């Protein structure tokens, strides 16, 4: 007997015995809901696809996808919760099973220098290789695909749906696309062939080999650089900084359009000295033209006792970044703020006036500043 | 100060007072450090009662080793040392293990609470056993029942002092420290009188530290600074609604209630969503009622609509005072500000408001759940004009709502749909629930443009109507229709919200349930028949107490002082029952009568509930004797059983006390957080009354009764 049945039987029996009333159907459903448990079977599931980037070891299959470097014994699951070892082979159980499918403005990712005012067909499968205390999407990132309600959407169908929704790109987003790499890669390959762009919204926690392969099919990436301190990365995100920095360099070197998001969390990542160091590192690694988005924190998930980031702090971070040499710095999650706009880094004039997801005026000509002719980096057109 | 042969009575009362006071103080800690909800409070009481019961049972084996003359001073010394240590554990352990600004993990809470409570509760249980031993030598006719009764009197005093008598005069933790210092000083004097001067001298620095420590060291400020570095604290008050702290960080002013940010200035997007999603539905000269939220920012948004007027209700007068001082709201002829219980305010006048917006915390406690129930929604509907709109909010389900999040939303949607013809959920920064008997629109940005209201966030630049409608459709389609409705008597939404909350920690609800069931099973197997009677009476008693508290809280709102009064009433009934049973004839009919009294009061409380929920004063008046008589029965059952005990009064008394508390512990764990929201008041009362009757039948079949009759 399963524990669900046991609990149900106990509760129904006790209630029946004590109240002499039949157990209502609604209550039975309620008891079922209370006793629900995580699936633990190690069988293949739906279209489970054999995982890329693995090596066999005596202790199990060694996953080489991300820096967690899990060695997964038979019947085991990786830290990301969606790579399982079934009879000595590693499978991705996220393949073809997105749990979130939406259409978003591209600016929501955020990507400000990539096909502005277009829409991105956005998909996510459950799982993540980090455990951030402030995760917005913890209901899909901290669980396995077996625990979410998924759509049956193979790569071909994703591309078709993106086309139907008039989206210019497909975004692999919300949870962590590194964990559904095979699904994202296959989808991106088809999309690219058919003229739809691919957007990678990620924590950047990925190994070099899979990342270099990925760069062949990805057009733009927004990477969360969560802080510039190994200790904070460990405590806040259960990850580490160095692999993320490597990811930024590789995306840049491989010619993928890159934008960076830094979430400024009060008491955690709002140290201006640390932000200054981060910007100095970005500049010294040729990433000074990569748009940097300082995003306002709002209380979420386990980090729900902190207030939102003061706008003043974001403005200070913005000033520090400009001072360090970053050329395109934005403030996110603060509606109506002037740091939503793009200013030419050369003549300092307003060239793209934004309000939310709309562009009110665009003073660029052929990707250059209309006033001084300076090229403005980005992928502005299809 | 009690002396000589009567010292045990005074010490017993003091023990009851201090332990009750410690419970109040720790409850406050739980509320502020652990986001206290019904589950957490249930676990806390379970730990407390079970550990105390175990302490009493364990002390049977070694209590005889302590010299009789040293017992009272040792008890007083323990009362001086352990409560402050436990308080410190609850205050500082979370700071050591939880990252700044984060919720404490439930697993850490379960382990930490057990660890922090164990010393105090085990000692507290042992104190009961030790005091029985002293009382047996004092010539008291019924030593076990007397200790039980005096302890109940002490708890009554503690509940009254900490709950309402001294609440406005002295902070509860200061009062606790003073009482502990008093116990320590008394203990030192007694040690000194009994030629144990070295122990007395050792106690004095502890007493001194308790007395002056608070004046040189503000624990609240220190912990707040550790938890929220960089904040400037503007005000900090203990109120009947919990701890209220106002801070500033950058340009933002925050009001924290129990360390959770309740109001935050400069929250433009949230403010605009709350107001405009509802008001674009009825934009022409709307009469608006807003309950909760930050009027400083909500009111100006409402007043942007031509001809609008707004009434802001706040239940917590201390919060309103803080708002006036630190988040001043506009004084305008079109805006009025009212303090009071929202449910009462909704009663009149009817058909008045075009829009009612409820900005309430998540329904994870009975207190917050009361603004999401069928009864509340019904009142809100009556207060609306025929085409009026009720707006409620839940935190955003973001890009995906899991099973539990969907269940919460489905219950609320279905509860609203029972009362209104149209219900619409708009998933944005919040999940906004709109309900009306007239049609509702989802093109919010279009509506704003039509109304010509200037906004920063809710406009076509940020809110894309087609995407919002699509997400709304997706969410609606994922919600089941077959859910229970959330009601005062069966807070199904609270249960669903608690389950969703547990998901933050990858914990299943069945774990505490299974723990409770295992304990029930073990107790039933290991207990003799008389013990079962005491245990079921203990369980029935706590169920009655929790049920009454729930009924009053749901019906009357935040009733901190009234709750204190009800707990005091319960303890008074227990004490009176225990005293009276010490003088009554020792006959099975009395015993059965007392058990039946408890069972009947359980049924009566449930019978009174619907009337009280609809505001009936006679119903409320009936609840008072009901609680007193029920607890009278529970207290009497303990004393009658203790009088049947064999020669070893210490062993049998501590055993019965242990069973009584363990029965109560299981009741506290299962009833508040699980059975009440799952089954509802009526079924729980039936089940508890049935349990008491079963316990009575089993205990009456014990051979002890026949032995006693022959004797």
Description:
The complex is a heterodimer of chains A (382) and B (711). Chain A is α/β, with parallel strands linked by helices. Chain A folds into 4 domains: 3-27, no CATH class; 49-92, no CATH class; 104-332, Aldolase class I (TIM Barrel); 341-382, no CATH class. Chain A contains 10 helices and 19 strands. Chain A has helices at 3-19, 25-34, 138-141, 155-164, 181-193, 208-214, 230-237, 242-253, 272-284, 311-324; strands at 49-50, 54-57, 60-63, 71-72, 83-86, 89-92, 100-105, 119-124, 169-172, 197-202, 220-224, 257-264, 292-296, 329-332, 342-343, 350-355, 358-362, 364-365, 368-369. In chain A, strands 7-8-9-10-11-12-13-14 form an 8-stranded mixed β-sheet. In chain A, strand 5 (83-86) and strand 6 form a beta hairpin. In chain A, helix 9 (272-284) runs parallel beside helix 10 (311-324). The longest helix of chain A has 17 residues, at 3-19. The N and C termini of chain A lie far apart (58 Å). The mean pLDDT of chain B is 87. Chain B folds into 4 domains: 1-225, Growth Hormone, Chain: A (Up-down Bundle); 232-261, no CATH class; 266-326 and 328-491, Rossmann fold (3-Layer(aba) Sandwich), CATH 3.40.50; 509-711, Up-down Bundle (Growth Hormone, Chain: A). Chain B is an alpha/beta fold. In chain B, helix 5 (143-165) packs across helix 24 and helix 9 (268-279) packs across helix 10. Helices cover 65% and strands 11% of the residues of chain B. In chain B, the strands form 2 sheets. Chain B has a 7-stranded mixed β-sheet, with helices on both faces. In chain B, strands 1-2-3-4 form a 4-stranded antiparallel β-sheet, with helices on both faces. At the A-B interface, helix 1, helix 2, strand 7, helix 3 and helix 10 of A face strand 4, helix 15, helix 17, helix 18 and helix 19 of B.
């Amino acid at each position: 007997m399963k524990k669900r049945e046991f609990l149900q039987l106990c509760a129904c029996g006790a209630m029946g015995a004590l109240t002499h009333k039949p157990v209502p159907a609604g209550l039975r459903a309620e008891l079922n809901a209370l006793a629900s448990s995580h699936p633990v079977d190690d069988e293949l599931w739906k279209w489970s696809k054999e995982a890329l980037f693995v090596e066999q070891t005596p202790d199990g299959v060694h996953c080489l996808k991300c820096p967690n470097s899990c060695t997964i014994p038979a019947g085991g699951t990786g830290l990301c919760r969606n790579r399982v070892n079934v009879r000595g082979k590693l499978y991705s159980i996220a393949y073809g099973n997105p749990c979130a499918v939406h259409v978003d403005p591209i600016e929501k990712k955020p990507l400000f220098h990539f096909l502005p005012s277009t829409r991105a067909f956005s998909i996510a499968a459950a799982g993540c290789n980090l455990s951030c205390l402030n995760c917005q999407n913890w209901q899909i990132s901290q669980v396995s695909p077996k625990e979410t309600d998924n759509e049956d959407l193979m790569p071909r169908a994703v591309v078709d749906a993106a086309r139907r929704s008039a989206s210019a790109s497909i975004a692999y987003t919300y949870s962590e696309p590194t964990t559904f790499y095979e699904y994202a890669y296959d989808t991106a390959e088809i999309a690219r062939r058919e003229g739809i762009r691919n957007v990678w919204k990620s924590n950047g926690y990925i190994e070099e080999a899979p990342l270099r392969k990925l760069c062949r099919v990805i057009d733009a990436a927004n990477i969360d650089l969560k802080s510039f301190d190994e200790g904070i990365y460990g405590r806040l995100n259960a990850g580490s900084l160095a692999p993320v920095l490597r990811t930024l360099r590789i995306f840049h070197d491989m010619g993928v359009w890159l934008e960076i998001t830094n979430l400024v969390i009060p008491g955690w990542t709002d140290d201006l000295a640390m932000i200054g160091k981060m910007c100095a590192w970005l500049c010294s690694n040729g990433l000074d033209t990569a748009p940097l988005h300082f995003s306002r924190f709002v209380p979420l998930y386990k980090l729900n006792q902190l207030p939102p980031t003061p706008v003043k702090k974001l403005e200070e971070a913005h000033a520090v970044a400009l001072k360090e040499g970053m050329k395109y710095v934005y403030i996110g999650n603060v509606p109506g703020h002037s740091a939503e706009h793009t200013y030419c880094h050369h003549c300092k004039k307003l060239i793209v006036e934004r309000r939310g997801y709309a562009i009110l005026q665009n003073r660029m000509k052929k990707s250059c500043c209309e006033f001084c002719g300076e090229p403005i980096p980005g992928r502005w057109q299809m | 100060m009690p002396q000589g042969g009567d010292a045990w009575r005074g010490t017993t009362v003091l023990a009851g007072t201090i332990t009750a006071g410690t419970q109040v103080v720790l409850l406050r800690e739980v509320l502020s450090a652990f986001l206290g909800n019904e589950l957490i409070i249930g676990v806390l009481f379970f730990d407390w009662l079970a550990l105390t019961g175990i302490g009493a049972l364990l002390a049977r084996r070694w209590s005889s080793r302590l010299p009789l003359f040293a017992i009272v001073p040792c008890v007083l010394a323990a009362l001086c040392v352990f409560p402050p240590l436990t308080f410190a554990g609850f205050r500082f352990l979370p700071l050591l293990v939880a990252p700044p600004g984060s919720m404490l993990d439930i697993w850490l809470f379960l382990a930490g609470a057990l660890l922090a409570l164990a010393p105090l509760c085990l000692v507290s249980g042992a104190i009961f056993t030790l005091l029985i031993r002293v009382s047996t030598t004092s010539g008291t006719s019924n030593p076990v029942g007397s200790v039980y009764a005096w302890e109940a009197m002490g708890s009554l005093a503690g509940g009254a002092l900490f709950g309402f008598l001294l609440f406005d005069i002295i902070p509860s933790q200061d009062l606790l420290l003073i009482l502990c210092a008093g116990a320590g000083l008394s203990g030192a004097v007694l040690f000194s009188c009994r030629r144990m001067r070295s122990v007395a001298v050792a106690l004095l620095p502890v007493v001194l530290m308790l007395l002056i420590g608070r004046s040189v060291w503000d624990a609240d400020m220190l912990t707040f600074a550790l938890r929220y570095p960089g904040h400037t604290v503007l005000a900090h008050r203990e109120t009947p609604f919990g701890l209220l702290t106002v801070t500033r960080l950058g340009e933002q002013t925050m009001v924290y209630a129990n360390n959770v940010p309740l109001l935050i200035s400069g929250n433009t997007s949230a403010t605009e969503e709350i107001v405009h999603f509802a008001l674009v539905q009825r934009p022409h000269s709307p009469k608006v009622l807003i309950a909760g939220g930050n009027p400083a920012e909500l009111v100006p948004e409402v007043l942007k609509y031509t001809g609008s007027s707004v009434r802001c209700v706040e239940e917590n007068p201390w919060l309103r005072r803080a708002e006036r001082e630190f988040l001043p709201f506009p004084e305008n002829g079109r805006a009025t500000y009212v303090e009071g219980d929202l449910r009462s305010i909704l009663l009149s006048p009817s058909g008045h408001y075009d829009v009612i917006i409820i900005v309430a915390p998540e329904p994870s406690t009975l207190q917050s759940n009361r603004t999401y129930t069928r009864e509340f929604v019904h009142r809100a509907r009556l207060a609306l004009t025929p085409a009026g709109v009720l707006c409620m909010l839940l935190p955003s389900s973001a890009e995906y709502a899991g099973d539990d999040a969907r269940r919460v939303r489905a219950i609320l949607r279905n509860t609203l749909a029972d009362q209104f013809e149209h219900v619409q959920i708009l998933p944005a920064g919040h999940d906004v629930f709109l309900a009306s008997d007239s049609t509702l629109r989802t093109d919010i940005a279009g509506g704003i443009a039509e109304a010509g209201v200037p906004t920063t966030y809710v406009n076509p630049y940020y809110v894309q109507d087609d995407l919002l409608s699509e997400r709304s459709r997706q969410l609606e389609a994922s919600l089941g229709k077959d859910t229970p409705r959330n009601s005062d008597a069966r807070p199904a939404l609270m249960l669903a919200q608690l389950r969703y909350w547990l998901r933050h920690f990858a914990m299943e609800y069945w774990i505490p349930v299974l723990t409770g069931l295992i304990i029930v099973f073990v107790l039933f197997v290991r207990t003799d028949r008389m013990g079962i009677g005491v245990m079921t009476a203990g369980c029935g008693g706590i169920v009655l107490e929790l049920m009454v508290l729930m009924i009053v809280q749901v019906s009357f709102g935040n009733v901190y002082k009234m709750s204190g009064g009800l707990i005091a009433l319960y303890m008074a009934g227990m004490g009176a029952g225990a005293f009276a049973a010490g003088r009554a004839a020792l006959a099975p009919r009395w015993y059965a009568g007392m058990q039946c009294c408890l069972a009947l009061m359980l049924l009566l409380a449930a019978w009174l509930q619907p009337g009280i929920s609809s505001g009936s004063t006679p119903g409320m008046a009936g609840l008072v004797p009901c609680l007193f008589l029920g607890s009278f029965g529970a207290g009497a059952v303990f004393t009658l059983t203790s009088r049947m005990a064999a020669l070893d009064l210490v062993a049998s008394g501590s055993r019965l006390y242990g069973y009584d508390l363990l029965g109560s512990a299981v009741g506290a764990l299962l009833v508040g957080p699980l059975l009440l929201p799952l089954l509802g008041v009526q079924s729980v009362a039936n089940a508890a009354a049935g349990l008491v009757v079963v316990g009575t039948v089993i205990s009456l079949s014990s051979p002890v009764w026949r032995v006693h009759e022959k004797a």
